[in-house]
Amino acid sequence: MVTKTRGIVLRSIRFGESSLIVDVLTELSGRVSFVVRIPKTSKGKIKKQYFQPMTLLEFEYDFRQKSSLQHIKDVRIAQPYSSIPFEPIKSSVLLFLAEFLFYTTRDEQENSTLFNYISTSLEWYDSACVDFANFHLVFMMRLSRFLGFQPFLEEFTEGCFFDLRNGCFTISAPLHSDFLNAKDAEHMYTLMRMNFETMKLFKLSHNERNRITELALHYYRLHIPNMPELQSFDILREVFS
């Protein structure tokens, strides 16, 4: 069955001498893995640069239910980036988010709402000229809404704790060890109040930004089975150091 859809490249790895294994979050089919043969000549329709992490694609493929690796028939870049490839900070953030999404959407089925959130967020980031340092923080925590474990903000009071397992604020410390103390709980509350338009109002130091990223990743690891430590976070720490 021939399927036409949009997709976001999450990871591509070399396979043999002239092919790639590409993991894509698609609009119509959720997560799909492809084997892509890259022509040796520059005149070929399918080009290696199409499969850089977080590239927004439109493509056509022949879906075969019994195959774990699908084959792309035709592909093009749906929305070329105008700033991200030329700004090292933005590029580093996108590599981090690509690895983050690779694990958080691993078992994702068709979810066009999730796909649209990610694609429109990337387009916003590409167009942003100033005040985008908190983008990845807002992106990560807003994503939890689409994955089913968005934190509840209603019970926040100064000095309270944050229960990471249940995603809520509590007056007393939970009986388990997966909770944040008052200072980190306030960081979580600050994070969940941000959106892309208002995040410029929240002035964070480099250390605070890295700490909040650590808290967000810890929260995800409790809710996503077998989510590992992200290797790209070390690079992100250097960006925001």
Automatic annotation (TrEMBL):
- Which terms does the UniProt entry file under GO BP? DNA recombination; double-strand break repair
Q: Which UniProt keyword terms apply here?
A: DNA damage, DNA recombination, DNA repair
Q: Which Gene3D superfamilies match?
A: Nucleic acid-binding proteins
Keyword DNA damage (UniProt) = yes
A cellular component annotation (GO) from this entry: bacterial nucleoid
Known InterPro entries for this protein?
A: ARFGAP/RecO, DNA_rep/recomb_RecO_N, NA-bd_OB-fold, RecO
* Domain spans labelled DNA replication/recombination mediator RecO N-terminal: 1-81
Family that this chain belongs to:
Belongs to the RecO family.
Function recorded in the entry? Involved in DNA repair and RecF pathway recombination.
Q: What is this protein called?
A: DNA repair protein RecO
Protein's organism: Prevotella aurantiaca
Q: Which gene encodes it?
A: recO
